[in-house]
């Protein structure tokens, strides 16, 4: 029984020394001197703020993309023991001792280092020679812009890593499926493709371009399988379901999981949650939740409420009134009703309180039991402090003459009767009998007499003049058949009114509510709202000193200064050397006719290389011509990576097919070695501005300015 012990247990393993050497060199190039400079470098000032918020569990919204990349950066801070206490207020600020600089920069550096062996393996899986694969890896290794971008707390190197991992995983899966359907390794690489694609999209939405490219490639490969007579219909269905699971369902599930973790971690209220709905804010610890905890859920006749406009742009604001009236005549000569002003006020104030009144009754308190207000009910809104009724009439609004003025009615005993009846329409109702709910219900108020809708002015952000205290204009919008968030309001603060006397009611309006009620949103509701905010929230794009156009990237007409030494030198990042990527793409297209006449295997090889390398470059570059946003050189790095992969492909073709004699092959090899030597020389030349040291003299810095358009900062002595 124990006879197997007579012989030793032997384990054999194949080790690719090329791959190991490239990995080690990649780690050295990206990790060496990682904590230098010990100061905030370029967009670290931006991402560092989010890392600090993660450490403190404070909610934030970043309109640049999903949260997965931010969480990875925060993971580095967590592993380094960062407490989040640092003021990220300017580039060049010295890090305090509590900031683990190396730990914060470690994950981007590791991702950048691993891109080197990934490039090697991609070309091997594309069936090109190990020499070509080694060339691609060396070009990635020595590309100064990729080195610099991966050595700081930035996201591009992480994005490129997941993009290359997705491409490699799919190529390995595709090569395996020819002889081992549904094997363990087949499933592993297929599933890893979907996981890597999801991670790429989760880091930045730019990853979506490569994900779509791989979906198209996978679709074309499956289309070819349909014509395979050796595959049964059942087998085809299984292949289709496997790809759907791995490439669609799992990436979607993972994408949702990124937001789930993000929202689980960030449970505290902060400055960014003000752009979210009241329901979202109330789900966070502190802030609005502290105010709204315990409020009654159902709005009833007699309820005291504050009404927040759902739009939240250019700032959150609440329906408001005060004792001041509209001027008899405006500056342009138009007349007003001289009624009490109604505005949208961006701060919490006692004058934001309104009482929901039943038009058929005089009482301003909630009955016992309460009578809830439902969709379609007619109400009057009474201003809590002044007891005047919300009103609109056929008088032009002050800033929006095509809309109706909204006021609180004052009886001047003239021929202008009150028109203060409003129909409550619950926009997000499930049925026509829905009850108006605190925070959860989004409602429109439709004026009964004129059918105008209560809304914040269509001139979003329009502030009234000094007589209106620069508050936002509120109007009655006529003929409002469409839907816009400026027309929608939700009850944020709510209490059941108990005091019929005005003086007692004023005291009541100043006091907080104390009733118990939980209004937690579901994850999907929070995800949907946050995702919509990320996609639609736009910061004002301002011209930046180092912004550039997509065309500037391929002509090398731009650079970026990331950090300036406080006393002597400069650290800049640009495309430090001219990669003949454009020539490679032209060469690729010119050689297609030749491959059309070649054997099928050669044609398939060329199509695969083109689909991955040229396709990867195109989908990561061309969309920027359609984007209306401030662009920087680093946006080109994913496309540049695919461009670099294409160079050895073209070089191998030239050596194999255009160099027929031994002499020509020798000459071509010598030229290739000379060209790679020039790449290494360029890497060495620009190393001081890649790594930020050693310091260079003014003359040495000026010598690095290969093009007049490059802006290299030089500190004046």
List keywords for this structure.
717 residues; six-stranded antiparallel sheet; 20 helices; 12% strand; Trefoil (Acidic Fibroblast Growth Factor, subunit A); elongated; single chain; 44% helix; 2 domains; alpha+beta
Strand content is 5-15%
This entry's quaternary arrangement is single chain
Cα distance spanning the termini: 84 Å
Number of helices: 20
Average pLDDT confidence is: 85
Query: How many strands in all?
Result: 14
How big is the Rg? 33 Å
Word description of this protein:
It is built from 20 helices and 14 strands. It is elongated and about 110 Å long. The chain folds into 2 domains: 35-262 and 544-704, no CATH class; 294-517, Trefoil (Acidic Fibroblast Growth Factor, subunit A), CATH 2.80.10.50. The model is unreliable at 514-519 and 569-598 (pLDDT under 50). It has helices spanning 17-31, 44-55, 68-79, 101-125, 130-142, 144-150, 156-176, 184-203, 207-226, 233-265, 278-282, 288-292, 502-510, 523-536, 550-555, 581-596, 600-621, 637-658, 662-691, 698-703, and strands at 303-309, 318-325, 340-345, 353-357, 378-383, 390-396, 404-408, 422-426, 443-447, 453-456, 472-477, 489-496, 559-564, 570-574. By secondary structure, it is an alpha+beta fold. It starts with 16 loop residues before the first helix and ends in a 14-residue tail after the last helix.
List the helices and strands and how they pair.
Elements: H1 17-31, H2 44-55, H3 68-79, H4 101-125, H5 130-142, H6 144-150, H7 156-176, H8 184-203, H9 207-226, H10 233-265, H11 278-282, H12 288-292, E1 303-309, E2 318-325, E3 340-345, E4 353-357, E5 378-383, E6 390-396, E7 404-408, E8 422-426, E9 443-447, E10 453-456, E11 472-477, E12 489-496, H13 502-510, H14 523-536, H15 550-555, E13 559-564, E14 570-574, H16 581-596, H17 600-621, H18 637-658, H19 662-691, H20 698-703
Helix pairs in contact: 1-4, 1-5, 2-3, 3-4, 4-5, 4-6, 4-7, 5-18, 6-19, 7-8, 7-9, 8-9, 8-10, 9-10, 9-17, 16-17, 16-18, 17-18, 18-19
